[in-house]
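Q: Hand in one record:
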Amino acid sequence: MHQFFIYLLAALPVLGHDLYLMPEKFTTSKGTKLRLVFQNGDEFPEGVSAVKPDRMRNTKLLSRGGQAAMEQIVAEPKRTTAEVLVPASGLAILTAQTLPSLIELDPAKFRSYLQHENLTNALAWREKHGEAGKPGRERYSKYVKSLIQADSVSDDQFRQAAGLTIEIIPEADPYSLRPGASLPVQVLFRGKPAVDVAVESAWLENGRAKMEVFGRTDAQGRIRIPVKAAGPHRLHAIVMERCAEPRAADWESFWASFTFAIPAAK
Protein backbone atom coordinates (compact mmCIF):
# COMPACT_ATOMS: atom_id res chain seq x y z
CA MET A 1 0.00 0.00 0.00
CA HIS A 2 2.88 2.34 0.73
CA GLN A 3 5.19 1.63 -2.24
CA PHE A 4 3.55 4.42 -4.22
CA PHE A 5 4.08 6.91 -1.42
CA ILE A 6 7.79 6.08 -1.03
CA TYR A 7 8.46 8.05 -4.22
CA LEU A 8 6.61 11.04 -2.88
CA LEU A 9 8.47 10.84 0.43
CA ALA A 10 11.80 10.79 -1.40
CA ALA A 11 10.92 14.09 -3.01
CA LEU A 12 9.20 15.39 0.12
CA PRO A 13 11.13 14.35 3.23
CA VAL A 14 9.17 16.45 5.75
CA LEU A 15 5.57 17.15 4.80
CA GLY A 16 4.69 13.56 3.89
CA HIS A 17 5.62 12.38 7.40
CA ASP A 18 3.20 11.92 10.24
CA LEU A 19 4.62 12.97 13.59
CA TYR A 20 3.62 10.69 16.44
CA LEU A 21 4.72 9.80 19.96
CA MET A 22 5.79 6.33 21.04
CA PRO A 23 6.47 6.14 24.78
CA GLU A 24 9.04 3.52 25.76
CA LYS A 25 6.17 1.97 27.75
CA PHE A 26 2.47 2.78 27.49
CA THR A 27 1.87 1.29 30.94
CA THR A 28 4.10 2.61 33.70
CA SER A 29 4.16 3.61 37.38
CA LYS A 30 3.83 6.77 39.43
CA GLY A 31 7.19 8.46 39.96
CA THR A 32 8.77 6.92 36.85
CA LYS A 33 10.93 9.03 34.53
CA LEU A 34 9.38 7.80 31.29
CA ARG A 35 11.42 7.85 28.08
CA LEU A 36 9.54 9.15 25.02
CA VAL A 37 10.28 8.84 21.32
CA PHE A 38 8.86 11.19 18.69
CA GLN A 39 8.67 9.30 15.41
CA ASN A 40 8.46 11.21 12.14
CA GLY A 41 7.46 9.08 9.17
CA ASP A 42 4.72 7.47 7.14
CA GLU A 43 5.48 4.01 8.52
CA PHE A 44 4.68 2.48 11.94
CA PRO A 45 5.97 2.01 14.63
CA GLU A 46 9.26 3.72 13.67
CA GLY A 47 9.91 6.90 11.72
CA VAL A 48 12.71 7.96 9.42
CA SER A 49 13.78 11.43 10.58
CA ALA A 50 14.04 13.67 13.63
CA VAL A 51 12.12 16.84 14.42
CA LYS A 52 14.25 19.73 15.60
CA PRO A 53 13.52 20.44 19.28
CA ASP A 54 13.38 24.20 18.64
CA ARG A 55 10.35 23.61 16.40
CA MET A 56 8.42 21.89 19.17
CA ARG A 57 6.01 23.53 21.59
CA ASN A 58 3.46 22.45 24.23
CA THR A 59 5.55 19.43 25.24
CA LYS A 60 3.93 18.26 28.44
CA LEU A 61 2.05 15.62 30.40
CA LEU A 62 -1.51 16.23 31.66
CA SER A 63 -3.09 14.09 34.38
CA ARG A 64 -5.57 14.37 37.23
CA GLY A 65 -2.57 14.28 39.54
CA GLY A 66 -0.91 17.29 37.94
CA GLN A 67 1.14 18.42 34.95
CA ALA A 68 4.77 17.82 34.07
CA ALA A 69 6.98 19.34 31.37
CA MET A 70 8.98 17.11 29.03
CA GLU A 71 12.73 17.34 29.57
CA GLN A 72 15.92 16.44 27.73
CA ILE A 73 14.36 16.84 24.27
CA VAL A 74 17.10 15.72 21.89
CA ALA A 75 17.20 15.20 18.12
CA GLU A 76 18.88 11.90 17.19
CA PRO A 77 19.68 10.82 13.61
CA LYS A 78 16.23 9.30 12.91
CA ARG A 79 14.07 10.36 15.85
CA THR A 80 13.65 12.86 18.65
CA THR A 81 13.67 11.69 22.25
CA ALA A 82 12.53 13.18 25.55
CA GLU A 83 11.65 12.16 29.10
CA VAL A 84 8.88 13.10 31.50
CA LEU A 85 8.09 12.40 35.14
CA VAL A 86 4.82 10.51 35.70
CA PRO A 87 3.32 12.44 38.65
CA ALA A 88 0.41 10.20 39.63
CA SER A 89 -1.38 6.91 39.15
CA GLY A 90 -4.05 6.83 36.47
CA LEU A 91 -4.27 7.95 32.86
CA ALA A 92 -2.13 10.76 31.48
CA ILE A 93 -2.11 12.62 28.17
CA LEU A 94 1.18 13.52 26.50
CA THR A 95 1.09 16.42 24.03
CA ALA A 96 3.35 18.29 21.60
CA GLN A 97 3.00 20.44 18.52
CA THR A 98 5.26 21.95 15.88
CA LEU A 99 5.63 25.48 14.66
CA PRO A 100 4.14 26.01 11.16
CA SER A 101 6.37 25.32 8.15
CA LEU A 102 5.99 26.19 4.47
CA ILE A 103 6.44 24.02 1.41
CA GLU A 104 5.65 24.19 -2.32
CA LEU A 105 5.03 21.18 -4.55
CA ASP A 106 4.60 20.91 -8.29
CA PRO A 107 1.03 20.12 -9.45
CA ALA A 108 1.51 16.36 -9.89
CA LYS A 109 3.19 15.83 -6.52
CA PHE A 110 0.65 18.00 -4.72
CA ARG A 111 -2.22 16.05 -6.30
CA SER A 112 -0.63 12.71 -5.32
CA TYR A 113 -0.15 13.91 -1.76
CA LEU A 114 -3.79 15.08 -1.50
CA GLN A 115 -5.01 11.76 -2.90
CA HIS A 116 -2.85 9.72 -0.52
CA GLU A 117 -4.09 11.66 2.52
CA ASN A 118 -7.75 11.52 1.40
CA LEU A 119 -7.96 15.34 1.27
CA THR A 120 -10.81 15.17 -1.20
CA ASN A 121 -12.20 18.63 -0.44
CA ALA A 122 -8.92 20.29 -1.39
CA LEU A 123 -8.72 18.19 -4.56
CA ALA A 124 -12.24 19.20 -5.58
CA TRP A 125 -11.61 22.88 -4.78
CA ARG A 126 -8.48 22.98 -6.96
CA GLU A 127 -10.38 21.40 -9.86
CA LYS A 128 -13.35 23.73 -9.52
CA HIS A 129 -11.25 26.89 -9.28
CA GLY A 130 -8.76 26.08 -12.01
CA GLU A 131 -5.79 25.43 -9.71
CA ALA A 132 -5.25 21.73 -10.53
CA GLY A 133 -2.40 22.64 -12.87
CA LYS A 134 -0.73 25.04 -10.45
CA PRO A 135 1.86 24.26 -7.75
CA GLY A 136 0.55 23.73 -4.23
CA ARG A 137 1.82 26.21 -1.65
CA GLU A 138 1.10 24.88 1.82
CA ARG A 139 1.69 25.83 5.43
CA TYR A 140 1.46 22.91 7.84
CA SER A 141 1.75 22.15 11.55
CA LYS A 142 1.49 18.91 13.51
CA TYR A 143 -0.25 18.09 16.79
CA VAL A 144 0.67 15.02 18.80
CA LYS A 145 -1.16 13.19 21.58
CA SER A 146 -0.50 9.95 23.43
CA LEU A 147 -2.36 8.24 26.27
CA ILE A 148 -0.47 6.28 28.92
CA GLN A 149 -1.61 4.46 32.06
CA ALA A 150 0.16 4.37 35.43
CA ASP A 151 -0.29 1.59 38.00
CA SER A 152 -3.18 -0.03 36.06
CA VAL A 153 -5.49 2.72 37.36
CA SER A 154 -8.21 4.13 35.09
CA ASP A 155 -10.04 7.44 35.31
CA ASP A 156 -11.79 9.82 32.92
CA GLN A 157 -8.64 11.66 31.79
CA PHE A 158 -8.84 9.96 28.39
CA ARG A 159 -11.82 12.13 27.39
CA GLN A 160 -10.25 15.47 28.38
CA ALA A 161 -9.47 17.89 25.57
CA ALA A 162 -5.85 19.03 25.59
CA GLY A 163 -6.58 22.33 23.85
CA LEU A 164 -4.66 21.54 20.65
CA THR A 165 -5.76 23.16 17.39
CA ILE A 166 -6.66 19.69 16.13
CA GLU A 167 -6.92 16.62 18.32
CA ILE A 168 -8.36 13.13 18.43
CA ILE A 169 -10.28 12.44 21.63
CA PRO A 170 -11.23 8.86 22.58
CA GLU A 171 -14.73 8.46 24.00
CA ALA A 172 -13.83 5.21 25.75
CA ASP A 173 -10.74 4.21 27.72
CA PRO A 174 -8.49 2.28 25.30
CA TYR A 175 -6.98 0.41 28.26
CA SER A 176 -10.41 -1.06 29.03
CA LEU A 177 -10.78 -2.50 25.51
CA ARG A 178 -9.59 -5.74 23.98
CA PRO A 179 -9.10 -6.91 20.38
CA GLY A 180 -12.42 -7.27 18.61
CA ALA A 181 -13.91 -4.16 20.23
CA SER A 182 -14.12 -0.72 18.66
CA LEU A 183 -12.90 2.63 19.92
CA PRO A 184 -15.25 5.61 19.48
CA VAL A 185 -13.35 8.85 18.91
CA GLN A 186 -14.15 12.46 18.14
CA VAL A 187 -11.93 14.74 16.08
CA LEU A 188 -11.97 18.39 17.15
CA PHE A 189 -10.66 21.30 15.10
CA ARG A 190 -10.37 24.61 16.92
CA GLY A 191 -12.55 23.12 19.64
CA LYS A 192 -15.41 22.16 17.31
CA PRO A 193 -16.32 18.86 15.61
CA ALA A 194 -14.21 18.23 12.52
CA VAL A 195 -16.67 16.99 9.90
CA ASP A 196 -15.87 14.66 6.97
CA VAL A 197 -12.27 13.99 7.98
CA ALA A 198 -10.59 10.70 7.06
CA VAL A 199 -9.15 8.79 10.04
CA GLU A 200 -6.41 6.20 9.56
CA SER A 201 -5.45 3.57 12.11
CA ALA A 202 -2.06 1.84 12.31
CA TRP A 203 -1.30 -1.20 14.46
CA LEU A 204 0.88 -4.29 14.64
CA GLU A 205 -0.46 -7.70 13.67
CA ASN A 206 1.86 -10.69 14.12
CA GLY A 207 4.74 -8.23 14.23
CA ARG A 208 3.82 -6.57 10.92
CA ALA A 209 2.48 -3.04 10.57
CA LYS A 210 -1.06 -2.67 9.27
CA MET A 211 -2.67 0.62 8.21
CA GLU A 212 -6.24 1.30 7.15
CA VAL A 213 -8.55 4.28 6.73
CA PHE A 214 -11.73 3.18 8.48
CA GLY A 215 -13.93 6.01 7.21
CA ARG A 216 -14.65 9.69 7.68
CA THR A 217 -16.03 11.57 10.65
CA ASP A 218 -19.76 12.32 10.83
CA ALA A 219 -21.53 15.64 11.49
CA GLN A 220 -20.38 15.50 15.14
CA GLY A 221 -16.78 14.71 14.20
CA ARG A 222 -17.18 11.13 15.40
CA ILE A 223 -16.11 7.76 14.06
CA ARG A 224 -15.66 4.25 15.48
CA ILE A 225 -12.28 2.59 14.96
CA PRO A 226 -12.16 -1.23 14.98
CA VAL A 227 -9.55 -2.64 17.37
CA LYS A 228 -7.79 -5.37 15.42
CA ALA A 229 -5.02 -6.41 17.80
CA ALA A 230 -3.37 -5.84 21.15
CA GLY A 231 -0.38 -3.54 21.43
CA PRO A 232 0.42 -0.02 20.22
CA HIS A 233 -1.89 1.88 17.89
CA ARG A 234 -1.68 5.20 16.06
CA LEU A 235 -4.61 7.22 14.75
CA HIS A 236 -3.98 9.91 12.15
CA ALA A 237 -6.16 12.69 10.69
CA ILE A 238 -5.61 15.92 8.72
CA VAL A 239 -7.75 19.01 8.28
CA MET A 240 -6.82 21.24 5.34
CA GLU A 241 -8.31 24.64 4.53
CA ARG A 242 -7.52 27.69 2.43
CA CYS A 243 -4.78 29.66 4.13
CA ALA A 244 -5.94 32.80 5.93
CA GLU A 245 -2.76 34.52 4.74
CA PRO A 246 -2.76 34.11 0.92
CA ARG A 247 0.63 35.78 0.57
CA ALA A 248 2.16 33.07 2.75
CA ALA A 249 0.45 30.00 1.25
CA ASP A 250 -2.62 28.82 -0.64
CA TRP A 251 -3.45 26.05 1.83
CA GLU A 252 -2.93 25.32 5.49
CA SER A 253 -3.02 21.82 6.96
CA PHE A 254 -3.25 20.63 10.55
CA TRP A 255 -2.03 17.10 11.27
CA ALA A 256 -3.26 15.14 14.29
CA SER A 257 -1.90 11.90 15.72
CA PHE A 258 -2.99 9.91 18.75
CA THR A 259 -1.19 6.85 20.13
CA PHE A 260 -2.23 4.38 22.80
CA ALA A 261 -1.98 0.67 23.58
CA ILE A 262 -4.62 -2.06 23.73
CA PRO A 263 -4.03 -4.71 26.43
CA ALA A 264 -3.83 -8.33 25.39
CA ALA A 265 -6.94 -10.44 25.79
CA LYS A 266 -7.13 -12.25 29.11
User: Anything to note?
Assistant: The two ends are 32 Å apart (CA to CA). Residues 3-260 form one domain. The first helix runs from residue 3 to 11. The longest strand covers residues 136-150.
